[in-house]
Amino acid sequence: MAKKEYSWRSGETPPPIEPHSFAKHRVYEEYISHYIQVRYADPRIPAASITLVDGFAGGGVYYNSQDNTLYEGSPLRLIRAASAAEKAINIKRESQGIRSMFQLHTTAFFVEKERKAFDYLKRHLTDAGLENRFGHDVHLLHGDFREKIEVIVENIRKRQRAGRAIFFLDQYGWSKVPFPLIQRIFATLPNAEVILTFATDWLIGYLANDERFKKAYHGTGLQDHLPLEHLLLEKTDNREWRAAIQAHLHRSIPFVSGARYYTPFFIKSTEANRTFWLLHLSNHPKARDVMTALHWRIKNQFSHSLGPGIRMFGYDPQKDQGITGMDDMFGETEYGFDDIAELLTLEAVRKELPKDIHQYPDGITYGIFYQQVANHTPATSDHLKAAIESLINVKEIEVFSPDGAERKKASTIRDEDILRVPRQGCFYLPGFN
User: Fold this and answer.
1) Are 315 and 329 within 8 A, CB to CB?
2) Angle (CA) 417 421 424, round 5°
3) Do residues 228 and 235 touch, judged by C-beta distance below 8 A?
4) Which tens digit of pLDDT belongs to each residue from 124-168?
5) 3-class SS string, 119-150
């Protein structure tokens, strides 16, 4: 019911890393780097604290068959990414003639359940020179992440008033991180973020009305919002049942996780020929935008299922494919993050945005509009603003500041600015394009 787990044994070569993990680790590293450099760019900030939690740390190192070398796992990569971001901030300050340097206090928790993998991890981090940090700002926890979470959260609360933490939960399969657990993280640490691997293809592939599957599914917390009986009915009665079930999961995860902002990305395992979801969960639209911008910057490593425009989660599994105009949202219609996809995204947003704004006769602030569409589009805030600027130029949209100043350029649009369709502009009637 889950993908095959890695195995580490003392004295033996570490397990070979799967190709998709290269892209995943790059996302981890670049997100940490960008997060820290953006959040602490203000030279008036002398110091800050952040906690990095790897809930499934593994043995800490892999064998890379591409070049016959050892490949660092996520634990060291997370720590080094934070350190590199701190150095980048100070290099920038020094180049600007700023004397006050920035100090980042990074605390890391590495959790691993399997004893042999845990021992391998401890030895690897010791060899990397981190032994003197064990028990201080690097904590190795042997056990199930579900059993260690309360200790971790309480430690963060005591040390950090803001509770800034990023949880990397690269679970094997789909049932080892119950969504109510993530909900507790957000309830206790509102500034936390979670990056979760979710093997959706495995869940769907083993979907069945037997006791073993029922127990695993009910343990995820999805049952309360998305009853298993409903999914089994889809499987029985719906010709496009795989797409329908994945659409249901998309709509349910934000509710059961407690995250206001939810962004799914897709990565395919070449060994298993199945797709994983990499879910970014947070309570802040800026965090969502930073992660989405990262995928556009990396290009071609991941894909998404949203299509190029706004509100692309509107798939109704009860409607025929001929009516919806959609194929399997999560199969061959996945979009990459390449230049062509970006052009399609801008074109689609320009087409759809006036119809969305027309729903608000008195206008809507950009900040609220972005919050409403963030979970339903691959577009970043910069994409939306670029589309708005082009619509301003053809007089399909107008933007004003709270004091009435007219905005003309994307770079000048702020969250509090009001978007509206011109009073004498085009009319958009339901059912007509």
Assistant:
1) yes
2) 135
3) no
4) 999 999 999 999 999 999 999 999 999 999 999 998 877 799 999
5) HHHHHHHHHCCCHHHECCCEEEEECCHHHHHH
Residue 409 to residues 350, 374, 388, 414, 418, Cα–Cα distance (Å): 15, 21, 9, 11, 14
Whole-angstrom Cα distance, residue 173 to residue 228? 18
Amino acid (1-letter code) at residue 218: H
Q: Report the distance separating Cα 52 and Cα 109, nearest Å.
A: 6
Torsion sign (Cα): 137, 143, 145, 149: negative
Burial class of residue 367 (count of CB atoms within 10 Å of its CB; 0-12, 13-18, 19+): middle
Mean per-residue pLDDT, 2-13: 79
Burial of 350 (0-12, 13-18, 19+ CB in 10 A): buried
DSSP three-state, residue 198 = strand
Give the least confident one: 22-31, 279-288, 337-346: 337-346
Give the integer Cα–Cα distance in Å for 378 and 328. Answer: 17
Q: In a 10 Å sphere around its CB, with 0-12 CB exposed, 13-18 middle and 19+ buried, how is residue 377 labelled?
A: buried
- Write out the two tokens for 422: 């011109």
- In the block, which residue shows the tokens 């845990």? 118
* Percent of the chain surpassing pLDDT 90: 58
User: Is the pLDDT reported for residue 431 higher than 60?
Assistant: no
Per-residue model confidence as pLDDT tens digits over 328-364: 333 333 455 667 777 888 888 888 899 889 899 899 9
DSSP 248-264: HHHHHHHHHHT-SEEEE
DSSP per-residue letters across 230-291: HHHHHHHH-TTHHHHHHHHHHHHHHHHHT-SEEEEEEEEETTTTEEEEEEEEES-HHHHHHH
In the chain, what is the straight-line distance between the N-terminal and C-terminal CA atoms, in Å?
45
In this prediction the pTM is 0.84
